[in-house]
Design goal:
Layout lengths: L1 H31 L1 H26 L4 H28 L7 H14 L4 E2 L2 E2 H28 L3 H22 L8 H23 L10 H25 L5
Helix pairs in contact: 1-2, 1-4, 1-5, 1-6, 1-7, 2-5, 3-5, 3-7, 3-8, 5-6, 7-8
């Protein structure tokens, strides 16, 4: 069951990040030229490969309990941030993530930017694609390395991330438009729940705690986080409908 949750978490988190990266690359390619945009994608991919190659072996040298404690704390930070935003969106206190609006903004900025060619490439298009893919890819790399090393199964986490990258890329090539129909807000909620769940579970294990039922206890933690999050959404929606007393 842990392997299934690991694969699903890596896939969903990577898919969310790649949808956002795709929006940036499309805006750069359509307005500044595909050669510069795709060169930026390639350069970012190589840079990410160097980061993963450097950090991956280093993590294997860290004692597993210390690794789980540190990774659990980091996942809680990231997971609670994602979950907080997702709960506020679902509760009506924060605007939903609109990929079409982001795409339109990126298009306007790319169209009005000045022209600066270097080595035969439009520098704005190159750097826009590079930054978009590299920054979103760093989060994917973080998830793959931390999840995989903590569960001692980096290949499985990498497989989930690779599947998400390929799927988003293929759909993007055929659509030539931002994936606005992808339920990104729902995916972010699911990722926030999973990251928080793993953060609690691994953080407690790293601190020396022993979960009743062993690894199966992660399902109980998952259910607790999910039900608590749904309860928060229900309370927020109710507060939006019923005016608070003065």
């Amino acid at each position: 069951m842990n392997d299934v949750l690991l694969l699903a978490s890596a896939f969903l988190a990577s898919a969310v990040e790649m949808v956002e990266a795709l929006t940036i690359v499309l805006a750069a390619g359509l307005t500044r030229g595909w050669r510069s945009s795709l060169t930026g994608v390639g350069a970012a991919t190589l840079a990410l490969a160097v980061v993963v190659a450097a950090l991956g072996p280093a993590l294997t040298l860290v004692p597993i309990d210390a690794l789980r404690l540190v990774v659990g704390g980091l996942l809680l930070v990231f997971g609670l941030q994602w979950l907080r935003k997702a709960i506020l969106r679902a509760g009506g206190y924060k605007a939903l993530h609109d990929e079409e609006a982001i795409f339109a903004r990126e298009l306007r900025e790319a169209e009005t930017a000045g022209r600066d060619e270097r080595a035969g490439l439009d520098w704005y298009g190159f750097t826009l694609s590079f930054k978009g893919v590299f920054l979103e890819g760093l989060e994917v790399a973080f998830i793959v390395l931390t999840f995989g090393s903590t569960q001692q199964n980096i290949p499985l986490a990498a497989a989930g991330a690779a599947l998400a990258v390929v799927l988003v890329a293929v759909v993007g090539v055929f659509a030539r438009a931002p994936l606005s129909r992808v339920p990104e807000n729902t995916m972010k909620f699911a990722v926030g729940v999973m990251l928080t769940t793993f953060g609690i579970f691994w953080g407690a294990e790293g601190a020396g705690a022993s979960w009743p039922g062993g690894d199966a206890a992660i399902l109980g933690v998952l259910a607790f986080v999910l039900l608590l999050s749904i309860a928060f959404i229900a309370v927020l929606r109710r507060r939006r409908v019923v005016p608070l007393p003065a």
